[in-house]
Write a structure and sequence with these properties.
This protein is 36% helix and 20% strand. With 301 residues, the protein is of the alpha+beta class. It folds into two domains: 88 residues, no CATH class; 201 residues, no CATH class. It has a three-stranded antiparallel β-sheet with strand order 1-5-6, with no helix packed on it. The protein has a three-stranded antiparallel β-sheet with strand order 2-3-4, with no helix packed on it. The longest helix has 35 residues.
Length: 301
């Protein structure tokens, strides 16, 4: 049902989606069980969990303890053969959103295809974990293709390949959480643009692989949004059609003929020399502040 709902939602939003697939032992396997009459138990001291319909306790490695009641638990097996338990709890958060934000505590970034985030005084470069592992992946893909289908050796080769992909995913997730945590702790409001990944791939064909496999913008924005919300801070997006790159951030003059190849340019109106991405971030900040004020948030200069 999840695949079908994803298909219909994607068609509704005019996104490019694939057809639903039947379950396979080669795909990620998951199941969810609900906590009924306290039938899910966790022993944090001995690092073990008791699940319904499983007679023995199951030991686990990493965890953080909590006192809240368990709603349900999802168990998943990755393609690399590892098992993970996700525990869903319900916790009441009493957070009062900030009503006033100082201008200096607002960060705005242009989401760049060549970097990742570019601000007026800060650049977050993407480590490109996929690109750095590409040679290993090519080698492992060749090993899989040379093995006989259905053989144990092919299964072992697929497992080695899956472990590398899992490592890349874990590296990206770790970097995203650390970077968004730094932003959420440092600033009271963060402004980004509502970027079209499909558009980035169209205009930056040479960077298409990096945009698709290395950047994970949606995951980054989701992680940043909830971290700011938990702290009573603010996340704001600027419309993707806002001409942040073409507007001069000093005088506001719009340079209609500015091309993607022009990384630096001089404003024909006020003669200010601009760096393309830093100029865009300055315009994104101005537009984002306008949206924040429309939401009833006072921005102090």
């Amino acid at each position: 049902m999840g695949s079908l709902s994803e298909l219909f939602q994607g068609l509704k939003e005019a996104r490019k989606v694939g057809y639903p697939r039947f379950k396979s032992k080669r795909h990620k396997q998951t199941y969810t069980t609900f906590n009924i009459n306290n039938n899910i138990k966790i022993d944090f001291e001995k690092k073990r969990i008791k699940l319904p319909k499983i007679k023995t306790w199951i030991r686990f490695k990493d965890n953080r303890s909590f006192a809240e009641s368990i709603k349900h638990v999802s168990v998943s097996k990755t393609k690399s053969g590892k098992y993970y338990v996700s525990i869903f709890i319900e916790e009441e958060l009493e957070v009062t959103p900030l009503k006033e934000v100082h201008c200096d505590a607002i960060a705005a970034f242009d989401m760049s295809a060549s970097e990742f985030l570019v601000g007026e005084g800060k650049v977050f470069s993407n480590p490109r974990f996929y690109r750095s592992s590409e040679a290993s992946l090519r080698k492992l893909h060749r090993q899989v293709s040379r093995k006989k289908k259905g053989s144990q050796n092919r299964g072992k080769a697929r497992l080695r390949l899956a472990r590398v992909y899992e490592k890349i995913a874990n590296q990206k997730r770790d970097w995203i959480h650390k970077t968004t945590l730094q932003l959420a702790n440092t600033f009271d409001a963060v402004i980004l643009e509502d970027l079209s990944i499909e558009g980035m791939q169209q205009f930056h064909s040479g960077l298409s692989k990096s945009v698709t496999l290395d950047f994970s913008w949606d995951q980054f924005k989701t992680s940043l949004n909830y971290k700011l919300e938990w702290r009573g801070k603010h996340y704001q997006e600027v419309d993707r059609f806002f001409p942040s790159s073409k507007l001069g951030s000093v005088c506001g003059y719009k340079h209609e003929n500015l091309t993607l190849k022009e990384r630096e340019w001089t404003c024909s109106e006020c003669r200010t020399h601009h760096h393309r991405d830093k100029n865009a971030s300055a315009n994104i900040k101005k537009e984002g502040i306008r949206f924040l004020e429309e939401r009833g948030i006072t921005v102090i200069s």
